[in-house]
Design goal:
By secondary structure, the chain is of the alpha/beta class. The protein is 38% helix and 15% strand. Helix 6 packs parallel to helix 10 (253-268) and helix 9 packs antiparallel against helix 10. The two termini are 41 Å apart.
Length: 765
């Protein structure tokens, strides 16, 4: 096998047309070793070796995955690029760390602890907070008085305890926090449990000792990265404050959000971890729907500030779950709300549940009949009537499969989903063999992790009932420009109308999408049959594809690029060696959105002592920007309805989960887009959920967004300035000047998308 791998091994570098590739690769996917940071070749060795081991791959399967990854045509998940093939991930208690996507139904205090544990491993955490779940939480009865003591890092290394110790003496509770992921999680979950513990008379004095917790900057063995517990002391006070406000009743959905998100704030402190979240609430929950209204505010001088009591809510996106088809008025109002707040996205659960039961809803007629029953509120009865042999546990699970991961592309219930990604911008549209090889490699890499068995019962039970995987792609827009030429762009500019030419384009798009979907399902099902694994009933999805797309400069997912030329801003910890190398390489830096003064105003000086994160600014040009005629097309003017049309095309013919979508729209699009969403749901066109992002025509915008469109003249000027500032032409050499003694952050976000940093949706970094 080794000889075969060596025979097909390629030494492809990242494309010269991907200026953000090396900064992103070294920031996000390259681990520190005793010999220095991993090269791309070493990352391939580690991750492919890990897939071979866990997936029991044949030499032929391994060789194909190896060739496609080294040629940057097919990638495993971002999580796997970071931890795949490490001894840390071979331990069952760490299996979750190999997955980008999770969702948990919040029914007990343990669910909160599980989500903090997942976030600390870099997983994206979805949480379903509908009344039927959170009403199972115990009522809050005890007033917590929390005192934090013990200086972090004060206990000598050899005397530190990894396990959290809890001692109860009357109404006094002593918590000594262990120096481990498990220790942090137990201390957090214990605070929640104390709030409802009936052994106390109504008030609890809680002393929390942090002296065993390792200090800022100390290395984290196994998972990688460095410790940064700067936000940990405040976690207990912030959580107790939220809990104390609910004494005498159960928590509401927003209070649940705050408790989950406060833990996420601790996890992402100083960008040592990156995290992502999705919170799903009932469509009738007005408190949840308005939780993030006016979260960001701007004063008369133009300074931006964020409401400090709700700051933690930036950690996640909020989506409203509809179990009935929303009215036209509800759809328009939801679109209007998203224009002004970025929140209130509609999810139609009926379509989600129908898709996740495709293994028993075999025909369009069956699906239609089921959706009508779901709309009437009789879906359970319909399933019982048509499938009387379904066990009750499986029946309930099938009806609950509308939980979303942070970017909304995976459908599950108490589950995990592994991802892979095909970079279509690296593939010839007319080379069908190359396409089949790339999609086969992507299918095999996700199927491999189906061998995992989870220690947590709720997650393992979900794996047994509903094993799922998600093969995705990025650069679809670039692929179709390459396949169809500038005429396809002109058709987009016209709004993708149903003309003779338009119908032909749609037929060609459909052929590609359908062919790829059939390839993926065939490969995964054949693999599962050979290994005696239960077949997943849905295998294809489309993630937003933010970070990995930068390795090849692909337009993310299905989306058109922001513009033909733009400034791309990438988040780093302050003084991160990769960021310092970027400065020497000529790129400029500014403070991140998270850097604010004592009044909540954004900082402007990246070297301000209060600044903790940097944004590196990189001028980028899409590969086809200089095609004859392309410069005449303004991508930023593509209509919301045209975007919606393309999204639904992908949703119908490729995606069997959900398609992560961010549709940009102007104030004038509100009613037409609202009606189009209403029609798509009413007509069962496959719509489940999509994010909407306001496009301000008068140049109003939130500050320091990941993308800033620029003209060709601005692009050329910025590139010239980068070259003038550049001190060294070799990025690796620039990095080596700063890398000694520093350990990089711990891998990519659970949601592989810097779209998540839009403050009107969710800010992660």
């Amino acid at each position: 096998m080794v000889r075969e791998l060596e025979r097909v091994r390629h030494t492809s570098q990242f494309p010269e047309t991907a200026p953000a590739a090396y900064p992103v690769f070294f920031r996000t996917y390259s681990r520190r070793t005793k010999g220095g940071r991993e090269t791309w070749s070493q990352v391939c060795d580690r991750t492919i070796g890990g897939l071979i081991k866990v997936g029991k791959l044949t030499p032929e399967e391994a060789a194909l995955i190896d060739r496609m990854q080294r040629q940057i045509k097919a990638f495993p998940s971002g999580r796997w690029l970071w931890v795949g093939g490490t001894p840390w991930l071979e331990k069952p208690e760490n299996f979750s760390g190999g997955y980008n996507c999770t969702s948990t139904n919040v029914t007990d205090w343990r669910a909160f602890g599980l989500m903090m544990n997942l976030a600390m491993m870099g997983c994206g955490t979805g949480a379903v907070l509908e009344p039927k779940y959170i009403n199972q939480l115990p009522p809050i009865r005890n007033h917590l008085i929390v005192a934090v003591e013990g200086e972090i890092g004060s206990t000598p290394v050899e005397e530190r305890r990894e396990e959290t110790e809890v001692k109860v003496e009357g109404s006094n509770v002593y918590i000594r926090v262990g120096d481990s992921r498990k220790g942090w999680v137990k201390s957090y979950q214990t605070i929640l449990e104390l709030s409802s513990d009936e052994q106390f008379p109504g008030e609890v004095q809680v002393s929390i000792d942090l002296s065993d917790v390792r200090a800022v900057g100390e290395l984290l063995e196994g998972f990688g990265g460095v410790a940064n517990p700067v936000k940990l002391p405040g976690l207990y006070e912030r959580c107790s404050s939220t809990l104390n406000k609910a004494i005498g009743r159960q928590l509401n959905s927003v209070e649940c959000c705050l408790l989950i998100d406060e833990a996420a704030v601790v996890v992402v402190a100083g960008n040592v971890r990156r995290s992502a979240g999705m919170r799903q609430g009932a469509s009738s929950d007005e408190l949840f729907a308005n939780a993030k209204a006016n979260l960001w505010q701007q004063d008369a001088e133009g300074n931006w500030r964020i409401d400090p009591e709700r700051d933690a809510l930036r950690m996640a996106n909020h989506t409203l779950v509809f179990h009935h088809k929303p009215t036209e008025k509800e759809c328009i109002e939801a679109v209007q709300k998203q224009y002004y707040s970025g929140e209130g996205a509609i999810m139609w659960a009926g379509e989600a549940v129908a898709r996740t039961n495709i293994d028993i809803l075999h025909t369009p007629a069956q699906k239609k009949d089921f959706l009508e029953a779901y709309q009437r509120g009789t879906a359970k009865e319909w399933l019982q009537q048509h499938f009387p042999d379904l066990p009750d546990e499986e029946l309930e699970h099938r009806l609950a499969r509308y939980g979303l991961n942070p970017c909304g592309e995976i459908l599950m219930s108490d589950g995990h989903c592994n991802l892979s990604e095909i970079h279509l911008n690296q593939i010839d549209p007319h080379n069908y063999k190359e396409q089949e090889e790339a999609f086969t490699a992507g299918a095999l890499s996700v199927a491999a992790l189906l061998h995992h068995k989870f220690l947590e019962e709720r997650y393992q039970k979900s794996r047994e009932l509903d094993p799922i995987v998600g093969v995705s792609f990025t650069g679809l827009f670039d692929f179709f420009v390459s396949a169809f030429g500038v005429d396809w762009l002109r058709w987009w500019q016209e709004g993708r109308p149903e003309t003779k030419t338009g119908i032909k384009f749609k037929q060609q798009e459909q052929e590609y999408l359908t062919r790829w979907k059939e390839m993926v399902h065939r490969v995964i099902w054949e693999y599962c049959d050979r290994h005696n694994l239960k077949r997943p009933n849905r295998c294809t999805t489309l993630q937003p594809a933010g970070t990995k797309s930068l390795l090849t400069n692909a337009s993310p997912g299905w989306h058109p690029p922001k513009a033909q030329r733009f400034i791309r801003r990438i988040t780093f910890a302050k003084n991160d060696p990769v960021a310092l190398a970027c400065i020497d390489y000529g790129y400029s830096i500014v403070p991140a959105q998270s850097d604010k003064d004592e009044n909540g105003n954004l900082l402007n000086n990246p070297f301000d002592r209060r600044c903790a994160e940097w944004l590196v600014e990189i001028p980028v040009e899409v590969p086809w920007a200089n095609l004859p005629g392309a410069s005449e097309i303004d991508i930023s003017k593509f209509s919301a309805l045209a975007q919606m049309d393309f999204y639904l095309q992908v949703q119908r013919y490729w995606t069997t989960h959900n398609t992560s979508a961010t549709i940009e729209f102007t104030v004038g699009d509100i009613e037409t887009l609202g009606r189009r969403i209403y029609e798509a749901i009413q007509n069962d066109e496959g719509y489940i959920s999509a994010a909407l992002l306001a496009r301000f025509e008068d140049h109003q915008s939130f500050p320091r967004l990941p993308f800033e469109p620029i003209s060709k003249e601005q692009y050329n000027l910025l590139v010239k300035e980068v070259l003038i500032r550049r001190k060294v032409d070799d990025f690796n050499l620039a990095l080596s000047h700063y890398d000694a003694g520093y350990s990089a952050e711990a891998g990519p976000a659970g949601c592989d998308s810097d779209k998540c940093m839009f403050p009107e949706q969710k800010t992660l970094s």
